[in-house]
Amino acid sequence: MKIAEAVLNRLNKDYLLPSIQREFIWLENPAEKRIEKLFDSILQEYPFGSILTWSIDKAPALTQLDWEVYEFIKDYDSDNPHNNPANINGFSKLFLILDGQQRLTALNIGLRGSFTKKKKLNKLYINLFSDIENDPDNEFGFKYEFKFLANISQDDNELWFEVGKVLNYHDKNTEVFKQDYDSIIKDKTSNNDLIIKAKMILGQLHKRICTDDTLYEPAPISTADDEKVLNIFVRTNDGGVKLEKADLLLSYMESNKKSVFTPNGARKEITDFVDSLNKEETHKPNYNFAKDDVLKTSLVLSNLEVQYKLKNFNEKNLIIISNNWLTIKKYLECTVKLIARYGFSSKNIISKNSLIPIAFFFQTKNISTSFVASQANQDLEQKNEIIKWLVVSQLTRAFGSSSDTTLKSVRESIKSGKSFKEINFGRIIEKEDVEKWINRESFGSKYSHLLLLLITKNKYWDECQQDHIFPDSKFNEEEFKKLSLTDMQIKFYEKYKNSIINLHLLNPLVNIVKSNDDFIDWGHTQNRDFLESSLIPTDIDLSFSNFENFIEKRKEKLINKIYELLRPSNP
Q1: CA neighbours within 13 Å on the CB side: how many for 209?
Q2: How many angstroms separate the CA atoms of 391 and 408, rounded?
Q3: Is residue 78 part of a domain?
Q4: Read out DSSP for 274-335?
Q5: Whether residues 388 and 298 fall in one domain
Q6: Last residue in a domain, options 388, 405, 427
Q7: If exposure means fewest CB atoms within 10 Å of the residue's CB, which of 21, 74, 79, 520 is most exposed?
Q8: Chosen domain end from 397, 427, 457
Q9: Looking at the DSSP assignment, which residues form a beta bridge with residue 255?
Q10: Is the separation of the CB atoms in 504 and 524 below 8 Å?
Q11: How far is CA 82 from the centre of its chain?
């Protein structure tokens, strides 16, 4: 297809945009010159890429799908950069653009429209005398010089031509176009080289816009299955800015005519809440929640079908979710505060789906927000059960490929009154698995905190952090010389310095007090219960010179204890 044909006869006629499309973003930062780059690429005959369309009959498909349909922007105003709803009267078939929106909009603005910034209306021009290709400041590698201009000041070395005027010659040949502007060029200069250059540029502009079949449209997708369309759209837009399925669902939810998520609408409510969940605070990291995670949680906490599909966000369910929205926010926030209190990071929360049952449990039990910090024995016991369950769910990857099935099963268990201690995933952990973890994990690694929580007595969990049993400051050349270590021994010490075998959990205040003390000195001031809670052997010499023996003994303790805890004795 010719670009002129698409712009004049298809855009905002039978080529329109479904509401799942994001808005035009190429002019959010004009300094990137994305439209200018596109036109330069077209004239340089670089591949343009294909335009993917969704072919639907206007009736009854559109009314069944309940999509809003929008026009392409023609006149872009930075103060109001939004698409207008489309008038689809008179068209029995429409082609909704799934891939190519940014490029087609850029063509529409450059050829038929304008760009208004700071109240100044700019049109796209090309300099017919430009030597930009040889300009040392040409950082973008332009061959042709395009600019959005409000006022034209023609210097001797410039002849600015309004690009959109080429459309007046969409049905004429290139020579006629060049001939009609011959006098304008010659009035500007008598330099034969500039005249030849200007005509060459005009000829290339007409050829690429009006003559060549520059646009490629493969066979349109023709389906009434909106879930399939969403999946295709996510797949084709997988490059560049990450696109979540939630972006599409929120567009769909925004177009719902019923009053849901008032007063701000679903997009703002959910986006703002995700930002709030991810905000870093003291003792609370960014857990990298996505909008997808929140929408999935909304289905589970609203007692709806847990599958994350468009059909489950129908009008009836949206009203249920909207009515339950404050509760969903409250208990997901409580869950995040709980895991932050017990030292979880975004690295060791392997699946966000594993947090949803905790929020559902809080909702079911109508847990108070004071529960997270409560030191009451009953609350501590319940929190310990939850945390241990969460640790096991991550280690066993219980929320993996069959996550929906697991979510439904756990939700039913909670509804039936089971405690987290009674919810068993039925995953088999072999002793070899545990040995691999212990050999692999180190300070701050993915599973290290989970494993340390598992083996440490839960009364030491609250606001804990990882600490080296033998302080890392001891592992230096001076200390090694004092002990007269061989090269092989030094390699051993350095290998296990940051190993999980040399780590335990400490309250931050205790960790500060411990500082860089020799463990043998500091350890003797602690009660036996504390040492045993971290599986620190108490029947051996804990001096730094006995580090190799310590590693051997504690490694054995770690493997045996974790295997004992995780093997399915009650499958």
Answers
A1: 30
A2: 19
A3: yes
A4: HHHHH--BTTB------HHHHHHHHHHHTT---S--GGGGSHHHHHHHHHTHHHHHHHHHHH
A5: yes
A6: 427
A7: 79
A8: 427
A9: none
A10: no
A11: 23
**Pair 412, 320 in one domain:** yes
- Dist CA 199 CA 546 (whole Å): 86
Amino acid identity, residue 192? N
Apex 275 CA angle, 272 and 277, nearest 5: 110
Q: How many CA atoms lie within 13 A of 17 on its CB side?
A: 24
> Model confidence over 151-181: pLDDT tens digits?
887 677 899 999 999 999 999 999 999 999 9
Q: How far are the Cα atoms of 200, 336, 564 from residue 501, in angstroms, in the given order?
A: 73, 28, 17
Mean pLDDT of the chain: 86
> For position 542, what pLDDT does the model report?
85
d(CA 158, CA 198): 10
- Residue in the structure block whose two tokens are 């929580």: 453
Whether 423 and 446 map to the same domain: the answer is no
Phi and psi (nearest 5°) for 93?
-135, 140
* Token representation of residue 202: 């005009």
Q: How many CB atoms lie within 10 A of CB 405?
A: 11
3-class SS of residue 149: strand
Give me the pLDDT at residue 220, please: 77
pLDDT score recorded for residue 234: 66
Pairing type for strands 15-18 and 75-77 reads: unpaired
Contact criterion met (CB below 8 Å) for 98 and 233:
yes
Closest CA to 463 of 512, 423, 499, 502: 512
Closest CA to 466 of 446, 482, 483, 484: 446
Please check whether residues 28 and 171 belong to one and the same domain. Answer: yes
Q: Are residues 278 and 148 in the same domain?
A: no
Judgement on whether residues 296 and 193 belong to the same structural domain of the protein = no
Is residue 11 within 8 Å of residue 177, measured between CB atoms?
no
Tally of domains in the chain: 3
Q: In the structure encoding, which two tokens stand for residue 452, read together?
A: 């340390």
Q: Which residue ranges in the chain fall short of pLDDT 70?
A: 58-67, 154, 224, 226, 233-244, 252, 254-259, 401, 426, 458-462, 508-527, 568-571
pLDDT digits (tens, 9 = 90+) for 179-200: 999 999 999 999 999 999 999 9
Q: Which domain holds residue 85?
A: 3-211
For 512, other C-beta atoms within 10 Å of its C-beta total: 9
Residue 127: in which H helix or E strand, if any? strand 120-127
Best CA proximity match to 205, nearest among 253, 168, 231 = 168
Omega before 263 within 30 of 0, i.e. cis: yes
Listed in order, strand segments (DSSP E) in 471-561 are 503-506
